[in-house]
Amino acid sequence: MGVDSFLNRLKVDKQVIERAEFNPYYNCIESGLEDPVIVDGKQYINLAANNYLGLGADIRVKKAAINAVKKYGISMCGTPVATGYIELYRRVEREISKFLTLEDTVILPSCYQANNGLFAAIARKEDLILVDHYAHSSLIEGIKCVGCKIRPFLHNNTNHLEKILKNSSKYRQIFIVTESVFSTEGSIAPLKEIYELGMKYGAVTVVDDSHGIGVIGKSGRGILEDSGIEDFKGIYTASLGKAIGVSGGIISGNKEIIEYLRYFCPQLVYSTGISPALLGAVEKVLEIIEKEFDILGKKLWDYRDIIRNRLVLNGFDLCDGMAPIISIKTGDALRTVLLAKSFYNRRILTTPFVEPSVPPNEGRLRLIAGANLSKKSIDKVTSLIDEIGRDI
Ligand SMILES: Cc1ncc(COP(=O)(O)O)c(C=O)c1O
User: Fold this and answer.
1) What spacing in Å lies between the alpha carbon of 134 and ligand 1's midpoint?
2) Are residues 90 and 202 in the same domain?
3) 228 Cα: distance to centroid of ligand 1 (angstroms)
4) In terms of domains, do 249 and 312 share one?
């Protein structure tokens, strides 16, 4: 024990990065999310951002953020229960709830924080939480805080889920936790079946729609619209930092539960309220989605199909996901990083997932082509995919 041994213990294992002679992480971007982005003074096509609708650098959204700063400043320097709750905050809570057709919403600085705080507020030791085996770190870490029994169910497997539900009667409350669109696989949860199972066995469904909001559903309202679920009696969370193109996290649902969280979710109550700039930006994005989802969504899905088909043509092994997340199965960490390097050397940014983000040897290289990319960039990507395909 001692300070020196502590400092020596916490070292990042960089063997894979050294063998690949490439570090794909913490790339320093020198521009906004325009197409192309600038890295190290050079132009790159960005297939790494979650900027599905391409609104992250939209001029109208920037202006809305600036207007909010002009009115309120950068920060209200207070938690939402104190001075951090402004009329714009309340308005955006209501607009998000209306957008999702849910009763009420709270807004936190991130969805990581939302998922982290939710379970400690709603669950107790005597409960049971069933969670999809591929659920995001924020859900898993949030669930672990409760100290209750946790049982993973096989990814998107409702038969396995029902089997566990049938044999779980001794708990005060059961929760079923899933993502909507899985961030590393691009698979979409069979939420309607999951929710109906929950209702049948008295279990509360919690869905994280971070990669679904603004992406799926006929008008971009996410998983509830996509699954045709009305009058949802579960709990809904989502990030505002992906298709919404801003930053922040939400928890939405029944008004009594949301009111409870306003007072008893520590991650909300004890953390400085989300910046007015971000609230102003979210408000504008919701307005844009209402008016332009047909066009933006079509581009997003068309780009997904073009890139996906080209990868298949070149023999890449892809996950079956139906979402506009294209995930290449890459095996071990070295192969994953080397494939990211092949793209990077051709000026394309991608997201490599290695352990512990995915199970060992189940590496993924994720590509997301946002609606802000030009057709010229997509054409360039497809011809470079041919080149990479030939090389490997
Ligand atoms: C499924 C999922 N949930 C939650 C989060 C966290 O969202 P945020 O970036 O708003 O903290 C992410 C982001 O990576 C995610 O992919």
Assistant:
1) 13
2) yes
3) 24
4) no
Q: State the residue range of the domain holding 263.
A: 75-274
Q: Which H helix or E strand runs over 238?
A: strand 235-239
Contact 31, 45 (CB under 8 A): no
Is the minimum distance from the CB of 208 to ligand 1 under 6 angstroms?
Answer: yes
Binned at pLDDT 50, 70 and 90, residue 11 comes out as confident
Q: Cα of 212 to ligand 1 centre, how many Å?
A: 11
* Residues 147 and 182 reside in one and the same domain: yes
| Ligand 1 near 226 CB (within 6 A) | no
Cβ(112)–Cβ(249) under 8 Å? yes
Rounded Cα distance, 33 and 52, in Å: 11
Q: Is the CB of 180 under 6 A from ligand 1?
A: no
Check whether residue 268 and residue 356 sit in a common domain. no
Tokens of 340: 């990211």
Statement: residue 351 has pLDDT above 90: yes
Q: Are residues 341 and 224 in the same domain?
A: no
* pLDDT tens digits, one per residue of 97-123: 999 999 999 999 999 999 999 999 999
Same domain, 343 and 259: no
Domain count, the chain: 2
Residue 68 lies in a domain: no
182 within ligand 1 shell (Cβ under 6 A):
no
8 A C-beta contact, residue 356 and residue 35: no
* Band of pLDDT at residue 7, cut at 50, 70 and 90: confident
